[in-house]
Amino acid sequence: MKFLLALAFAVLSATSGYSRTLITPSFVVVIINNEPEGVVSSDNIFYVGVSKKSGDSIKIKGQTVHTTDADGV
Are 30 and 48 spatial neighbours (Cβ–Cβ below 8 Å)? Predict the structure, then answer.
C-alpha cells in the first residue's frame, strides 16, 4: 500500500513539469523536474525512490548543475 501511495504521489507531482522513471527488480525510481521543458537550470528537482520489497520510500529535493563550456554555452 505504501508503494502505491508513494508512486501515485510521484506521478501527481509531475503534472506541471516532466518526469523520468526507472524500474528495477527491487526499486521504482522517479526523477521529477517541475520546470517547463526547455529550462536548463532548476532548483525544483525531486527524486522519489520506492522499494518493491518493503514499500519504504524516500523523497529528496535537489537541483540541477549547469556549467558553461569554453564557447559560453
Answer: yes
Tell me the pTM: 0.65
DSSP state, residue 22: E
Residue keyed to cell 520546470: 35
SS3 18: strand
Cα separations (Å) of 34 from 26, 57, 67?
Answer: 26, 20, 20
Q: Cell 525531486, residue?
A: 46
CB 12 within 8 A of CB 4: no
For β-strands 45-51 and 27-33, DSSP reports them as antiparallel
**For 35-50, how does the pLDDT look when each residue is reduced to its tens digit (9 = 90+)?**
887 777 888 889 999 9
